[in-house]
Design brief:
By secondary structure, the chain is α/β, with parallel strands linked by helices. The protein has helices spanning 24-36, 62-68, 84-91, 112-119, 134-139, 155-167, 181-186, 196-224, 238-267, 276-283, 285-305, 310-322, 331-357, 360-363, 368-394, 411-415, 417-429, 432-442; strands at 16-20, 39-43, 58-60, 71-74, 95-98, 124-127, 147-152, 171-174. Strand 7 (147-152), helix 6 (155-167) and strand 8 form a beta-alpha-beta unit. The chain is elongated and about 100 Å long. The chain binds NADPH dihydro-nicotinamide-adenine-dinucleotide phosphate and fe (iii) ion (FE). Residues 243, 299, 344, 389 line the site of fe (iii) ion.
Length: 460
């Protein structure tokens, strides 16, 4: 009995397809095609010794197999395409599907598909299936592997491949002519594309603040006080850099939202596209937030470590030995430090909650309203708590001239700039008059300019 995917119509008259190459992809694709109701014939260099093939498939030489089908799927690496020239007479007028990928970018002057087309000019080459994998064809594709990018110069050939992909349960995205094949062939080489910008930001901020604090703390002490406190790099410095980067990145998650709102208010409509950079920024907010959460985790772990540090234990012992009489208890300090810790812990708890709700399995279980409540309302509350935590950390240190070593502000002060700006702007956004305008714009209302020269409402 065939295991045809649910809801898929079988191909008319059990169409015969030809696959060149009996390797990993050839076999997996053949098996899926057979399950979907196609007949499959393989073209192989060694039809009698090519190893196990999906039951029901035939195997013969390339020349014989090519004659039988109108569509030939070439599951062979580009390096071996030269054998195709021998089969050229049998491939005349056929649809050739190029599934190949490269192991590196820019390996060849032209795309594999265009190269194949130049070898067999009498056939119609279509680029497809290079983003699926042999593994996902056998185990059921995940969302990332369900998309097939299609390009080719002949409309009928493309249509034939589109139908084929659709019957296999894959979703097809048309990328245009065969000249787009180069771009399509590079897709599988991309490594975590949506993480690239957040990772660059995280690395840049970490490097900047590490060197900034290294100069202010370690090098300053060495030059001005002749003290070697370089050991502080490992924990003290790290535990300043991590929360700083975390807070800035968290605020960068919420900055584009506020900017988008300002842009909508300024334009008086929601029907105009945001600039590309803003779109791109908004799309990587989840990754920015998850990285920020990672840095916050590091900050928590490093903070828990403080009491068992040699340096801290030494200080405590020395202090207890020297001060015979107990120090005066300062209620303000007690309030400040307790609030600082408490706000930090609450902020972190919400931070973790935000991280959990961004997991697809959790966010899929939420309604849109629930999701936006958590990510927007609780998100801004998290930012508020974490910013407050940093203000409490600084407290009145900004009044002391000794804080500004070599006339530079301390790291925590620098890192408060973006979150404070975001929070103030957000506060302005929730003022009743602004909130009302924004609400109307988001429901489709458009501002008409002075003397009727403004935009007209768009038909939805
Ligand atoms: N594996 C995957 O998940 C994916 C692979 N692809 C692409 O599919 C193509 C095939 O990949 P894959 O199946 O993994 O590779 P394999 O190495 O597993 O198989 C390649 C097949 O090509 C044939 N072949 C090898 N050398 C020659 C030659 N000199 N002349 C003619 N035919 C030859 C062989 O079949 P025979 O012995 O029968 O002639 C061989 O089994 C590649 O271009 C790859 O980039 C694309 C997406 C995913
Ligand atoms: Fe902290």
């Amino acid at each position: 009995m065939s295991l045809r995917p649910l809801g898929m119509e079988p191909p008319p008259e059990r169409e015969l397809l030809c696959i060149f190459g009996t390797g990993d992809l050839g076999r997996s694709l053949g098996q899926r095609l057979l399950q979907t109701g196609y007949r499959v014939v393989y073209g192989s260099r060694r039809p009698h010794s090519c190893g196990p093939l999906p039951p029901g498939a035939q195997v013969m030489s390339h020349t014989e197999a090519a004659q039988l089908a109108a569509v030939v799927i070439v599951c062979v690496h580009r390096e071996h395409y030269d054998f195709m020239e021998e089969v050229a007479p049998q491939l005349k007028g056929k649809v050739l599907v190029d599934v190949s990928n490269n192991s590196k970018k820019g390996l060849y002057p032209e795309s594999n598909a265009e190269f194949l087309q130049s070898l067999i000019p009498a056939a119609s080459v279509v680029k497809a299936f290079n983003t699926v994998s042999a593994w996902s064809l056998q185990n059921g594709p995940s969302d990332a592997h369900r998309q097939v990018f299609l390009c080719g110069d002949k409309a009928e050939a493309k249509q034939a491949v589109r139908e084929l992909a659709t019957r296999l349960g894959l979703s097809v995205l048309d990328r245009g002519s065969l000249s787009a094949a180069r771009e399509v062939e590079d897709f599988p080489l991309q490594l975590f594309p949506e993480w690239r910008l957040p990772l660059c930001i995280a690395t840049g901020l970490t490097a900047f603040f590490f060197f900034y604090l290294l100069i202010r703390d370690v090098i300053y002490a060495y030059v001005e006080q002749d003290k070697d406190i370089s050991f502080r790099i490992m924990v003290s410095l790290a535990n300043k850099v991590f929360p700083i980067v975390s807070l800035i990145m968290l605020s960068l998650c919420y900055l584009p939202g506020v900017m988008a709102a300002i842009l909508q208010l300024y334009r008086g409509t929601k029907y105009r596209r945001f600039p590309d950079w803003l779109d791109h920024w908004m799309l990587c907010r989840k990754q920015l937030g998850l990285l920020a959460l990672g840095f916050a985790f590091l900050h928590v772990l490093y903070t828990l470590l403080i009491p068992i540090r040699y340096y801290v234990r030494y200080k405590v012992t020395a202090h207890t030995v020297i001060s015979k009489q107990t120090a005066v208890f300062d209620t303000t300090s007690a309030w400040r430090t307790d609030s600082y810790f408490s706000v930090g812990i609450l902020g972190f708890a919400l931070y973790v909650l935000l991280g959990i709700t961004s997991l697809p399995s959790v966010s899929n279980a939420l309604s849109w309203r629930e999701f936006s409540f958590v990510q927007s309302k609780l998100g801004h509350l998290t930012l508020l708590l974490c910013t407050l935590h940093t203000y409490l950390y600084g407290w009145n240190k900004f009044l002391r001239p000794s804080t500004y070593k070599w006339c530079t502000p301390p790291g925590y002060m620098l890192c408060l700039v973006v979150p404070s700006v975001v929070l103030v702007l957000k506060l302005l956004m929730v003022l009743p008059c602004v909130d009302r305008s924004l609400g109307r714009i988001r429901q489709g209302w458009e501002r008409t300019g002075p003397e009727g020269e403004g935009t007209k409402p768009l038909m939805a």
